[in-house]
Amino acid sequence: MRFPKWLRWAGMGFLSLLVACQGMRSAAPAPGPALSTSIPPTPGIAAPVPVALAAGAGEAVAALEQQLKAIYQQVNPSVVHIRVRSGQGALREESTGSGFVYDRDGHIVTNHHVVEGGGTVIVTFADGTEVLARVIGTDPDSDLAVLQVEVPSERLHPVALGDSGAVHPGQLAIAIGNPFGLEGTMTVGIVSAVGRVIRPGSRVFSIPNMIQTDAPINPGNSGGPLLDSQGRVIGVNTMIFSQTGVSSGVGFAIPVNTVRRIVPELIARGRYEHPWLGISGYSVTPLVAKELGLPAERGALILEVDPRGPAARAGLRGGSRPIPVLGESIPAGGDLIVAIDGRPISSMEDLIAELEEHYRPGDEITLSILRDGQTREVRVRLAPRPSS
Protein backbone atom coordinates (compact mmCIF):
# COMPACT_ATOMS: atom_id res chain seq x y z
CA MET A 1 0.00 0.00 0.00
CA ARG A 2 1.35 3.49 -0.87
CA PHE A 3 0.60 6.64 1.07
CA PRO A 4 0.83 10.33 0.10
CA LYS A 5 4.25 11.87 0.67
CA TRP A 6 2.89 14.12 3.41
CA LEU A 7 1.63 11.16 5.40
CA ARG A 8 4.11 8.46 6.35
CA TRP A 9 3.70 5.63 8.77
CA ALA A 10 6.07 5.95 11.63
CA GLY A 11 6.56 2.44 10.20
CA MET A 12 8.86 1.87 13.08
CA GLY A 13 10.95 4.82 15.14
CA PHE A 14 12.43 7.79 17.21
CA LEU A 15 15.47 10.15 17.19
CA SER A 16 16.94 11.49 20.42
CA LEU A 17 15.78 14.84 21.80
CA LEU A 18 18.17 16.83 23.98
CA VAL A 19 16.34 18.29 26.96
CA ALA A 20 18.06 21.44 28.20
CA CYS A 21 17.27 24.40 30.41
CA GLN A 22 19.08 27.61 29.45
CA GLY A 23 18.65 30.78 31.45
CA MET A 24 18.61 34.29 29.96
CA ARG A 25 21.68 36.38 30.74
CA SER A 26 20.82 39.64 32.45
CA ALA A 27 22.69 42.73 33.62
CA ALA A 28 21.56 42.22 37.21
CA PRO A 29 22.48 38.95 38.91
CA ALA A 30 19.62 36.65 39.92
CA PRO A 31 19.11 36.41 43.68
CA GLY A 32 20.50 33.35 45.37
CA PRO A 33 23.25 30.96 44.23
CA ALA A 34 23.56 30.05 40.54
CA LEU A 35 25.04 26.95 38.96
CA SER A 36 27.39 27.51 36.00
CA THR A 37 28.82 24.92 33.68
CA SER A 38 31.54 25.34 31.08
CA ILE A 39 33.03 23.15 28.36
CA PRO A 40 36.77 23.33 27.52
CA PRO A 41 37.30 24.99 24.13
CA THR A 42 38.31 22.87 21.15
CA PRO A 43 41.24 24.22 19.10
CA GLY A 44 39.99 26.03 16.03
CA ILE A 45 36.41 26.18 17.29
CA ALA A 46 34.85 29.09 19.16
CA ALA A 47 34.36 28.40 22.85
CA PRO A 48 30.72 27.72 23.79
CA VAL A 49 28.82 30.25 25.87
CA PRO A 50 28.50 29.00 29.48
CA VAL A 51 25.01 27.91 30.45
CA ALA A 52 23.71 29.68 33.53
CA LEU A 53 20.99 27.92 35.47
CA ALA A 54 18.88 29.91 37.88
CA ALA A 55 18.74 28.87 41.49
CA GLY A 56 16.93 25.56 41.78
CA ALA A 57 16.94 24.92 38.02
CA GLY A 58 19.93 22.61 38.27
CA GLU A 59 18.09 20.43 40.76
CA ALA A 60 15.00 20.41 38.53
CA VAL A 61 17.03 19.31 35.51
CA ALA A 62 18.77 16.61 37.53
CA ALA A 63 15.40 15.37 38.82
CA LEU A 64 14.02 15.22 35.29
CA GLU A 65 17.07 13.30 34.11
CA GLN A 66 16.68 10.82 36.95
CA GLN A 67 12.99 10.39 36.14
CA LEU A 68 13.71 9.72 32.46
CA LYS A 69 16.45 7.27 33.42
CA ALA A 70 14.06 5.43 35.75
CA ILE A 71 11.37 5.28 33.05
CA TYR A 72 13.82 3.86 30.54
CA GLN A 73 15.02 1.21 32.97
CA GLN A 74 11.41 0.33 33.84
CA VAL A 75 9.92 0.21 30.33
CA ASN A 76 12.72 -0.70 27.93
CA PRO A 77 12.59 -4.41 28.94
CA SER A 78 8.93 -4.35 27.82
CA VAL A 79 9.68 -2.94 24.36
CA VAL A 80 10.53 -5.32 21.52
CA HIS A 81 12.05 -4.99 18.07
CA ILE A 82 9.89 -6.62 15.38
CA ARG A 83 11.24 -7.80 12.03
CA VAL A 84 9.01 -9.22 9.32
CA ARG A 85 10.73 -11.21 6.58
CA SER A 86 9.12 -12.27 3.33
CA GLY A 87 10.45 -13.84 0.14
CA GLN A 88 13.67 -15.77 -0.27
CA GLY A 89 17.19 -15.27 -1.56
CA ALA A 90 17.70 -12.11 -3.60
CA LEU A 91 13.97 -11.41 -3.37
CA ARG A 92 13.88 -11.45 0.41
CA GLU A 93 12.49 -8.31 2.02
CA GLU A 94 12.53 -7.23 5.65
CA SER A 95 10.49 -4.54 7.38
CA THR A 96 10.90 -3.52 10.99
CA GLY A 97 8.85 -2.01 13.76
CA SER A 98 8.33 -1.92 17.49
CA GLY A 99 5.93 -3.43 19.98
CA PHE A 100 5.44 -3.88 23.71
CA VAL A 101 4.63 -6.75 26.06
CA TYR A 102 0.94 -6.66 26.97
CA ASP A 103 0.72 -9.52 29.49
CA ARG A 104 2.54 -12.55 30.88
CA ASP A 105 0.83 -14.86 28.37
CA GLY A 106 3.27 -13.65 25.73
CA HIS A 107 0.95 -11.22 23.95
CA ILE A 108 2.66 -8.31 22.23
CA VAL A 109 0.87 -5.24 20.88
CA THR A 110 2.05 -3.54 17.69
CA ASN A 111 0.60 -1.85 14.60
CA HIS A 112 -1.33 -3.73 11.95
CA HIS A 113 0.78 -2.12 9.23
CA VAL A 114 3.97 -3.49 10.80
CA VAL A 115 2.87 -7.09 10.16
CA GLU A 116 0.54 -6.47 7.23
CA GLY A 117 1.23 -8.72 4.26
CA GLY A 118 2.45 -11.72 6.26
CA GLY A 119 5.87 -13.30 6.45
CA THR A 120 8.09 -14.61 9.21
CA VAL A 121 7.81 -12.45 12.33
CA ILE A 122 10.91 -12.26 14.54
CA VAL A 123 10.77 -10.55 17.93
CA THR A 124 13.91 -9.39 19.74
CA PHE A 125 13.76 -8.40 23.41
CA ALA A 126 15.92 -5.79 25.08
CA ASP A 127 18.16 -8.49 26.60
CA GLY A 128 18.89 -9.90 23.13
CA THR A 129 16.46 -12.83 23.31
CA GLU A 130 15.21 -13.57 19.81
CA VAL A 131 12.07 -15.65 19.16
CA LEU A 132 9.57 -16.34 16.42
CA ALA A 133 6.10 -14.85 16.89
CA ARG A 134 2.71 -15.61 15.40
CA VAL A 135 0.06 -13.04 14.56
CA ILE A 136 -3.11 -13.93 16.46
CA GLY A 137 -5.26 -10.90 15.69
CA THR A 138 -5.29 -7.75 13.58
CA ASP A 139 -7.59 -4.78 13.10
CA PRO A 140 -6.73 -2.65 10.05
CA ASP A 141 -9.24 0.06 10.95
CA SER A 142 -7.55 0.87 14.27
CA ASP A 143 -4.10 -0.17 12.96
CA LEU A 144 -3.61 -2.55 15.89
CA ALA A 145 -2.28 -6.11 15.91
CA VAL A 146 -1.45 -8.69 18.56
CA LEU A 147 1.41 -11.17 18.36
CA GLN A 148 2.17 -14.07 20.68
CA VAL A 149 5.56 -15.49 21.63
CA GLU A 150 6.55 -18.58 23.58
CA VAL A 151 8.67 -17.12 26.38
CA PRO A 152 8.63 -18.08 30.09
CA SER A 153 6.29 -15.73 31.91
CA GLU A 154 8.96 -14.73 34.44
CA ARG A 155 11.00 -13.24 31.60
CA LEU A 156 8.13 -11.08 30.35
CA HIS A 157 7.67 -7.53 31.61
CA PRO A 158 4.18 -6.20 30.76
CA VAL A 159 3.78 -2.45 30.46
CA ALA A 160 1.54 -0.39 32.74
CA LEU A 161 -1.42 1.10 30.85
CA GLY A 162 -2.46 4.67 31.54
CA ASP A 163 -5.63 6.60 30.69
CA SER A 164 -5.59 8.48 27.38
CA GLY A 165 -8.81 10.24 28.41
CA ALA A 166 -6.75 12.19 30.95
CA VAL A 167 -4.00 13.18 28.49
CA HIS A 168 -3.70 16.90 27.76
CA PRO A 169 -1.51 19.14 25.57
CA GLY A 170 1.70 20.23 27.23
CA GLN A 171 2.35 17.11 29.27
CA LEU A 172 5.53 15.14 28.84
CA ALA A 173 5.51 12.49 26.11
CA ILE A 174 8.21 9.80 25.97
CA ALA A 175 8.72 7.21 23.26
CA ILE A 176 10.85 4.07 23.31
CA GLY A 177 11.28 2.10 20.12
CA ASN A 178 13.58 1.08 17.31
CA PRO A 179 13.90 3.93 14.78
CA PHE A 180 15.84 2.89 11.69
CA GLY A 181 16.49 -0.41 13.47
CA LEU A 182 18.35 1.31 16.34
CA GLU A 183 17.06 -0.77 19.24
CA GLY A 184 16.11 0.72 22.59
CA THR A 185 16.00 4.37 21.52
CA MET A 186 14.26 6.86 23.80
CA THR A 187 12.98 10.25 22.60
CA VAL A 188 11.22 12.95 24.56
CA GLY A 189 8.75 15.71 23.75
CA ILE A 190 5.30 16.86 24.71
CA VAL A 191 1.74 16.04 23.82
CA SER A 192 1.00 18.78 21.29
CA ALA A 193 -2.71 18.03 20.72
CA VAL A 194 -5.38 15.45 21.53
CA GLY A 195 -8.60 14.34 19.88
CA ARG A 196 -7.25 14.23 16.33
CA VAL A 197 -9.33 12.23 13.85
CA ILE A 198 -6.96 10.90 11.20
CA ARG A 199 -7.63 8.78 8.14
CA PRO A 200 -4.30 7.12 7.30
CA GLY A 201 -3.35 7.05 3.63
CA SER A 202 -5.82 5.14 1.47
CA ARG A 203 -7.81 3.72 4.40
CA VAL A 204 -11.57 4.17 4.17
CA PHE A 205 -12.26 4.78 7.86
CA SER A 206 -10.70 7.29 10.25
CA ILE A 207 -9.12 6.63 13.66
CA PRO A 208 -10.59 8.96 16.33
CA ASN A 209 -9.03 10.63 19.35
CA MET A 210 -5.43 10.17 18.26
CA ILE A 211 -2.70 11.80 20.35
CA GLN A 212 -0.42 14.25 18.57
CA THR A 213 3.15 14.60 19.82
CA ASP A 214 6.32 16.43 18.86
CA ALA A 215 8.50 13.65 20.31
CA PRO A 216 10.59 12.50 17.31
CA ILE A 217 9.01 9.45 15.64
CA ASN A 218 10.66 7.81 12.65
CA PRO A 219 10.49 4.61 10.58
CA GLY A 220 10.96 1.78 13.08
CA ASN A 221 8.92 3.39 15.89
CA SER A 222 5.55 2.11 14.70
CA GLY A 223 3.90 -0.08 17.31
CA GLY A 224 6.06 1.18 20.16
CA PRO A 225 4.68 2.86 23.28
CA LEU A 226 4.12 6.54 23.93
CA LEU A 227 4.51 7.08 27.68
CA ASP A 228 3.59 9.65 30.30
CA SER A 229 5.89 10.99 33.01
CA GLN A 230 5.14 7.96 35.19
CA GLY A 231 6.13 5.46 32.50
CA ARG A 232 2.55 4.43 31.74
CA VAL A 233 1.50 3.78 28.15
CA ILE A 234 -0.81 6.50 26.83
CA GLY A 235 -0.64 5.55 23.15
CA VAL A 236 0.79 3.37 20.39
CA ASN A 237 3.04 5.33 18.01
CA THR A 238 1.67 4.94 14.53
CA MET A 239 2.37 7.63 11.94
CA ILE A 240 3.87 11.01 11.15
CA PHE A 241 3.13 13.93 8.87
CA SER A 242 6.27 14.48 6.84
CA GLN A 243 7.45 15.66 3.43
CA THR A 244 10.63 13.60 3.74
CA GLY A 245 9.57 10.42 5.55
CA VAL A 246 11.41 11.36 8.75
CA SER A 247 10.26 13.23 11.83
CA SER A 248 8.87 16.71 11.28
CA GLY A 249 7.71 17.11 14.87
CA VAL A 250 4.12 16.00 14.15
CA GLY A 251 3.55 12.38 15.10
CA PHE A 252 0.42 10.48 16.07
CA ALA A 253 -0.33 7.69 18.52
CA ILE A 254 -3.41 5.49 18.87
CA PRO A 255 -4.86 6.28 22.32
CA VAL A 256 -4.37 3.59 24.94
CA ASN A 257 -8.09 3.53 25.74
CA THR A 258 -8.59 2.21 22.20
CA VAL A 259 -6.01 -0.48 23.00
CA ARG A 260 -7.96 -1.38 26.15
CA ARG A 261 -11.14 -1.79 24.10
CA ILE A 262 -9.79 -3.61 21.03
CA VAL A 263 -6.82 -5.75 22.11
CA PRO A 264 -8.81 -8.14 24.37
CA GLU A 265 -11.09 -8.84 21.38
CA LEU A 266 -8.10 -9.50 19.13
CA ILE A 267 -6.72 -11.95 21.69
CA ALA A 268 -10.05 -13.72 22.15
CA ARG A 269 -11.41 -13.66 18.58
CA GLY A 270 -8.62 -12.50 16.28
CA ARG A 271 -10.67 -9.54 15.04
CA TYR A 272 -12.73 -6.57 16.18
CA GLU A 273 -16.11 -5.43 14.84
CA HIS A 274 -16.56 -1.67 14.59
CA PRO A 275 -20.02 -0.06 14.53
CA TRP A 276 -21.13 1.28 11.15
CA LEU A 277 -23.66 3.98 10.36
CA GLY A 278 -23.08 4.09 6.61
CA ILE A 279 -22.65 7.77 5.79
CA SER A 280 -19.99 10.21 4.65
CA GLY A 281 -20.22 13.64 6.20
CA TYR A 282 -18.89 17.16 6.57
CA SER A 283 -18.14 19.18 9.70
CA VAL A 284 -20.29 22.30 9.71
CA THR A 285 -18.89 25.58 11.04
CA PRO A 286 -20.76 28.87 11.52
CA LEU A 287 -19.41 30.23 8.23
CA VAL A 288 -20.37 27.09 6.31
CA ALA A 289 -23.79 27.08 7.97
CA LYS A 290 -24.35 30.67 6.82
CA GLU A 291 -23.30 29.88 3.25
CA LEU A 292 -25.60 26.84 3.10
CA GLY A 293 -28.47 28.49 4.97
CA LEU A 294 -28.49 25.85 7.69
CA PRO A 295 -30.54 26.40 10.87
CA ALA A 296 -27.66 25.35 13.17
CA GLU A 297 -24.05 26.55 13.25
CA ARG A 298 -22.52 23.19 14.19
CA GLY A 299 -23.12 19.55 13.36
CA ALA A 300 -22.31 16.69 11.00
CA LEU A 301 -23.84 17.29 7.57
CA ILE A 302 -24.62 14.07 5.70
CA LEU A 303 -23.13 14.26 2.20
CA GLU A 304 -23.80 10.70 1.06
CA VAL A 305 -25.67 7.67 2.38
CA ASP A 306 -24.44 4.17 1.58
CA PRO A 307 -27.48 2.31 0.18
CA ARG A 308 -26.34 -0.88 1.96
CA GLY A 309 -26.03 0.69 5.39
CA PRO A 310 -28.12 1.31 8.50
CA ALA A 311 -28.55 5.03 7.73
CA ALA A 312 -30.25 4.23 4.43
CA ARG A 313 -32.58 1.73 6.11
CA ALA A 314 -33.50 4.38 8.69
CA GLY A 315 -34.35 6.91 5.97
CA LEU A 316 -31.50 9.36 6.50
CA ARG A 317 -30.77 11.61 3.53
CA GLY A 318 -27.58 12.76 1.86
CA GLY A 319 -26.96 15.89 -0.19
CA SER A 320 -28.23 16.31 -3.73
CA ARG A 321 -27.45 19.89 -4.79
CA PRO A 322 -23.74 20.76 -5.19
CA ILE A 323 -23.18 24.29 -3.91
CA PRO A 324 -19.87 26.20 -4.02
CA VAL A 325 -18.80 27.02 -0.47
CA LEU A 326 -15.48 28.62 0.41
CA GLY A 327 -13.78 27.33 -2.72
CA GLU A 328 -15.18 23.79 -2.68
CA SER A 329 -18.35 22.11 -3.88
CA ILE A 330 -20.53 20.68 -1.10
CA PRO A 331 -23.62 18.54 -1.77
CA ALA A 332 -26.34 20.45 0.07
CA GLY A 333 -29.75 19.30 1.18
CA GLY A 334 -28.67 16.41 3.42
CA ASP A 335 -29.68 15.86 7.02
CA LEU A 336 -27.68 17.70 9.68
CA ILE A 337 -26.89 15.49 12.70
CA VAL A 338 -26.79 17.59 15.87
CA ALA A 339 -27.03 14.95 18.64
CA ILE A 340 -26.71 11.24 19.34
CA ASP A 341 -28.77 9.85 22.22
CA GLY A 342 -29.14 13.40 23.50
CA ARG A 343 -25.42 14.22 23.45
CA PRO A 344 -24.59 17.21 21.20
CA ILE A 345 -22.61 16.60 18.01
CA SER A 346 -20.66 19.60 16.72
CA SER A 347 -18.70 17.96 13.90
CA MET A 348 -18.21 14.82 11.86
CA GLU A 349 -15.20 14.09 14.06
CA ASP A 350 -17.46 14.16 17.11
CA LEU A 351 -19.82 11.67 15.50
CA ILE A 352 -17.01 9.28 14.56
CA ALA A 353 -15.56 9.38 18.07
CA GLU A 354 -18.95 8.89 19.75
CA LEU A 355 -19.83 5.87 17.62
CA GLU A 356 -16.42 4.25 18.00
CA GLU A 357 -16.02 4.72 21.74
CA HIS A 358 -19.53 4.13 23.04
CA TYR A 359 -21.31 1.73 20.69
CA ARG A 360 -21.04 -1.71 19.16
CA PRO A 361 -22.74 -3.35 16.16
CA GLY A 362 -26.35 -4.16 16.98
CA ASP A 363 -26.82 -1.16 19.28
CA GLU A 364 -29.79 1.09 18.55
CA ILE A 365 -29.15 4.82 18.67
CA THR A 366 -31.31 7.92 18.35
CA LEU A 367 -29.98 10.65 16.09
CA SER A 368 -31.31 14.19 16.38
CA ILE A 369 -31.31 15.70 12.89
CA LEU A 370 -32.35 18.93 11.23
CA ARG A 371 -34.25 18.48 7.97
CA ASP A 372 -36.08 21.24 6.12
CA GLY A 373 -35.71 23.48 9.17
CA GLN A 374 -37.35 20.99 11.54
CA THR A 375 -35.87 18.78 14.24
CA ARG A 376 -36.50 15.05 13.90
CA GLU A 377 -35.53 12.01 15.95
CA VAL A 378 -34.41 9.01 13.91
CA ARG A 379 -33.67 5.59 15.38
CA VAL A 380 -30.89 3.61 13.73
CA ARG A 381 -29.59 0.11 14.48
CA LEU A 382 -25.83 0.01 13.89
CA ALA A 383 -24.31 -2.75 11.77
CA PRO A 384 -20.80 -4.25 11.67
CA ARG A 385 -18.46 -2.14 9.59
CA PRO A 386 -17.72 -3.69 6.18
CA SER A 387 -14.15 -4.59 5.36
CA SER A 388 -12.17 -1.58 4.19
Automatic annotation (TrEMBL):
Family matches, as PROSITE patterns: PROKAR_LIPOPROTEIN
GO BP of this protein: proteolysis
GO molecular function terms noted in the UniProt entry: serine-type endopeptidase activity
Keyword tags: Hydrolase, Protease, Signal
Annotated signal peptide: 1-27
Any Pfam family matching the protein: PDZ_2
UniProt entry tagged with the keyword Protease: yes
InterPro entries attached to this UniProt entry: Chloro_Bact_Ser_Proteases, PDZ, PDZ_sf, Peptidase_S1_PA, Peptidase_S1C
Domain PDZ: 275-373
PANTHER family: PEPTIDASE S12 (PTHR43343), PROTEASE DO-LIKE 8, CHLOROPLASTIC (PTHR43343:SF3)
Name of the protein this chain belongs to: 2-alkenal reductase
Organism, scientific name: Thermoflexus hugenholtzii JAD2
